Amino acid sequence: EDQVTQSPEALRLQEGESSSLNCSYTVSGLRGLFWYRQDPGKGPEFLFTLYSAGEEKEKERLKATLTKKESFLHITAPKPEDSATYLCAVQANSNYQLIWGAGTKLIIKP
Amino acid sequence: SAVISQKPSRDICQRGTSLTIQCQVDSQVTMMFWYRQQPGQSLTLIATANQGSEATYESGFVIDKFPISRPNLTFSTLTVSNMSPEDSSIYLCSVAQTGMDEQFFGPGTRLTVL
Q: What is the pLDDT of residues A71-90, one digit of tens each?
């Protein structure tokens, strides 16, 4: 069965304290892995798409990486405005439906 | 990316009534989707809105409860019918140019059913 597991459920960091969020997946033929950011009361905001193992993408303080079993979202020197829930989703070659993880709630304290 | 708006942004409704949620995109898109996000949970796909034909519903969701319209490539509606408190959720529309592209989401409609 295709599934996505994100860890940790919640992460509290001090401003400037770098860390990583994990997205583990099992899917029969990965077409793409997507990272989104969601602020309270808002729709998810697209961040990255990764297609193959070894691929990396960066945006400001965020860097996403992909292996054959998991993806990491690295946050370097985070600021309070990076506080949000980060969602991971995968798409199989056989189906356009996204399979979503439960998300990691990130809190950055000033 | 497309600019997506939803109306209403929030509503409080009585049990047994229906609410229609609108999703408007500022450019033509091929794919439109409707999701539900219950409090503290991730996203669940309700259906894919197909232009000019019936929507494609996911397991656990039926047309009588969640009728969907898509009259053109920029607009769709989702109706939540005969509501109960269990329907209290955030309802989100998303769009993509193809089924294999990243999806972009609207701001959501927060529904509370009393």
A: 999 999 999 999 999 999 99
Q: Which of B41, B103, B105 sits opposite A102 (nearest CB)?
A: B41
Looking at chain A, which residue has its C-alpha nearest residue B107? A43
- Across the strands, what pairs with B11? B111
Q: What is the dihedral of CA A59, A34, A36, B89, to 10 degrees?
A: 170
The b/e string for A27-52 (b: 16+ C-beta within 10 A; e otherwise) is: beebbbbbbbbbeeeebbeebbbbee
Q: State mean pLDDT over B93-97.
A: 93
pLDDT at A95: 82
- pLDDT, one tens digit per residue, over A9-28 is 999 999 999 999 999 999 98
Considering only CB atoms, A43 lies closest to which of B1, B99, B108, namely: B108
Q: Which residues lie closer than 8 Å to B36 by C-beta, 6 or more apart?
A: B43, B44, B46, B89, B90, B91, B92
Q: What are B53's two structure tokens?
A: 């034909």
Contact at CB, A42 and B108, closer than 8 angstroms: yes
